[in-house]
Amino acid sequence: MKGWYHSWLAAIRIARRDAWRSKGRSILVLAMIAVPILGVSAIDVTLRSAELTPDQKLTREMGAADALLTDAGWGGLPIHQPPDPRFTGTEPVGGFKQYENKPMPEGKADVTKAIPAGAKVLVDTRAVARLRTTHGLLSTEVREIKAADPMAAGSLTLTGGRHPEKAGEVIATDAFLKDSGLSVGSTLTARSLDTKFTVVGSYELPESLNLTQVIAPPGTLIAPLNEALKAQGLPDAGGSTAYRVSVGGEGFTWNMVKEANAKGVQVESRAVILSPPPVSDVPYFKNHSSEAREYGSNRELLTIAATIVGMALLEVCLLAGPAFAVGARRSRRQLGLVGANGGDRRHIRAIVLSGGLVIGLVAAVVGTVLGLLLTLALRPVLEGLMGQRFGAFTVRPLELLGIAAVAVLTGLLAAIVPAINASRQTPLASLTGRRGVRRANRVLPMLGLAAVAAGVAVALYGATSSDNVLLVAGGSGIAELGVVALTPVLVGLFGRLGRWLPLSPRLALRDAIRNRGRTAPAVAAVLAAVAGSVAVATYAESHDAKQRAEYRAMLPYGSGMAVTDEAGGRDVPAVRQAVQANIPLDALADVQRIVVGSKNCTAYSDDAKCGNYDVFIPKANRCPLHDPGKNIDDFSIAERRAFSKDERCRVTEGGGAPQQGGVLVGDEKVLTALAVTDPALVNALRQGKAVSFAPTTFVDGKTGIKLVTDRKKADEAMAAQKEPPGEVRQLPSVLAPKSVNGYGLQLLVPPSLAKSAGFTTVPYGVLFSTSALPSSEQTQALNGAIDKIGLDEGVTIEAGYVSENGIVLLALTVFAGLITIGAAGIATGLAQADAEADLKTLAAVGAPPRVRRALSGFQCGTVSFMGVVLGSAAGLLPAIALVLSDRRKDASLAQESLDMGWGSGMARVDMPIVIPWETLGGLIVVVPIGAALLAALVTRSRGALARREAG
């Protein structure tokens, strides 16, 4: 035991001394191991710091209060809730089935009746308003709460100025001040409200740093704004109120929660959430028992993460292994002396392995410490990217120790093969510099071939016969490891190309083939990196091709729209002017919409005085699957499949033409903007007839519009699965040919016909076509003008399918190129160390100095070329397997859609297998040439003078 300890101690000392002497090589290997450790440790600390405790989460939501009480939304009826209702919600006592044939209850619960006597209360009301900024109008959350109240502590943090104390004072989040261009001391106003507010302070929400929000004292902003909007006949800003309650003592107990539930109030209780009651005491769980269970970790995500970590570990080992081989080769005289003085193979292996141990330990310490320091230094930046503050700077020593252990393990694994090879050298061969003759390993290629066959079989089985994507990933990983094991044999096959090469590349190829021990790991490292990049690039290109084929334009290419249904279209003139002033137009059409009720009504208005409408479909033309009196289960699968081919059940696909209820009011200019040139349709509009784009709505030259004026009765009828009551007004119309694309529009009504039919219309916006797509400058100018108007929807211009793969493919090519150059550079350095005698011989027989540069460049280029060729071939397997797997899933989903009667009209394109030729070209041609030129440039033309070696 004592001898073992002292031998390893001596080996570590020798390894430490060698690492210090060869600083460049040591720093290279250390960086390769330490950089991933730095990243992983930084990610670990970041995620752990951002992971809030349950109490911290509650504090950010409700401050220092004991509970947060809100209306459950069931009209004040008794409810059941789980201990933590934040993610599951509530249900009315008796369940949801009681409302299958009747409308949901309306009204609001009186939350104040659920507040215990003597409790402290902080009212928190929120709404959304448009506030005027230096850039125009900004839709912002406005809030009324006593921000200085102790119960607000923890949920917001004052970052500047002071809290508002009286009417006319507000504070704003830092995000709002940044987006608005305002600052503390600025004056702020809301649209439709004349009152001016002064920003007296700034704050941040620890849970949502990017939220734009303004806080005013209770009763000073939301209520006056709603009154002003009501006076102008506009929808109010809404408003939801929550009550923060502090009761002291044990907090808001479960019995208190149940008492509040009986009054229709939902309660988030700190005490109950942190210490929930038994499941048997929770009525909610009688119907939702599964929600009381604890869900385990995601097995697939863990498996994928483990696979990625394993492949990264393999990559580092393959890159660092040749570097350790360089060290062992340059220290062969020292290792020979150890053997000559009584050291055996174990001692030689221990010395080389100690090199990996020493560098692994240093890399672990450096990577972990730098990861901690980097996270600490970048904490504000990381919090900004994540959009929330850390709970605390949390360090888990055991996790960091495990990450550091991976670094040590990586160093040892990278040094294993060089250690074994060095121990096989005899002392005589090491001292004289002879390499000896060693038989090729026949076991490893056989294992590699078996792994390739098994991996391909598993991947193809997962792609064609199973829904488990892990089989595809696992099979591809096994196959790639098999190719790595076959690398020495595959490298040997490249030797047959030497007969057609000139002198320098032939020498470089011959050297690489004869010294596969140093060539194969570098080629394998390049192979692994390139295979991953090619796999991702191939799948991304294939997916992109599928997306392109399935893409359905919202409007004709170059056409656009800008619409608004706010305030009866009061902003439409400004919108039209902004569009005309900033983009090149070919046609511009003013469009209107029908309103049922006041001019401020919209299709989605909650106002009881507002109705709605849609294009009427006669009963004979309705899809039987959509009959209100029937359920989908009333039809067999065969019947559903038959209906999926029925024109009545055809699903309207895509389209983004402006409309409400399928109807748009406009003249023939709308057809021009929609690229419709059929003269019959243009003449029909000029003659005062509507144009129908939906065959099921067109009967005997007429199309109907159904108006519903009583929404309550309509809701009751729909809940009872009956026809909603309403008036149908028939309009003379013509049917557009099937070849004409209405882009989602069902009925285009000329203004004269809408007026004569008794419809009330209001301006809706503009529909236009451009003579050329606007430039980036024109788009920015238009967006700026629209922002000043305060249009929520913005301007939409159809620019066709835009691929987002360009930057991804470029990043993959650069990544694979860097790995390739790094691995090839290491192999070239090792080759230079091995071939120094040959280079001296070439110089002695008169070879010019440039031969050294050329040989170095070709050696680097040879390794790069072999690696990228093999990697490109290996990377196609997982990509093809994933494409085939996606095809199966798409086909299965399509069959399910047909079985439900949904298939007709929906585009489905089998994902093609698209080879990323540009990426492959860059890898196979550009990267090896670049690596060769770089190696030639950094290689000295003349070697250093060396002393005569004894031997």
Please provide a written account of the structure.
By secondary structure, the protein is α+β, with helices and mostly antiparallel strands. The chain has 28 helices and 23 strands. The strands form four sheets. Strands 15, 16, 17, 18, 19, 20 and 21 form a seven-stranded mixed beta sheet that branches. A six-stranded mixed beta barrel has the order 4-5-10-7-9-8. Helix 18 (572-582) packs antiparallel against helix 24 (776-789) and helix 25 runs antiparallel to helix 27. The longest helix has 50 residues, at 850-899. It is globular and about 105 Å long. 41% of the residues are buried. Residues 290-297 and 944-951 have low confidence and may be disordered.
Q: Main attributes?
A:
951 residues, 6-stranded mixed β-barrel, disordered C terminus
Give a brief rundown of this model:
By secondary structure, the chain is an alpha+beta fold. Helix 8 (299-330) runs parallel beside helix 25 (805-834) and helix 27 packs antiparallel against helix 28 (917-938).
Strand fraction equals 5-15%
Report the end-to-end length measured between terminal Cα atoms.
37 Å
What is the β-strand count? 23
Average pLDDT over all residues: 79
- Find the structural class using helix and strand composition: alpha+beta
Helix count? Answer: 28
Main sheet record: 7 strands, mixed
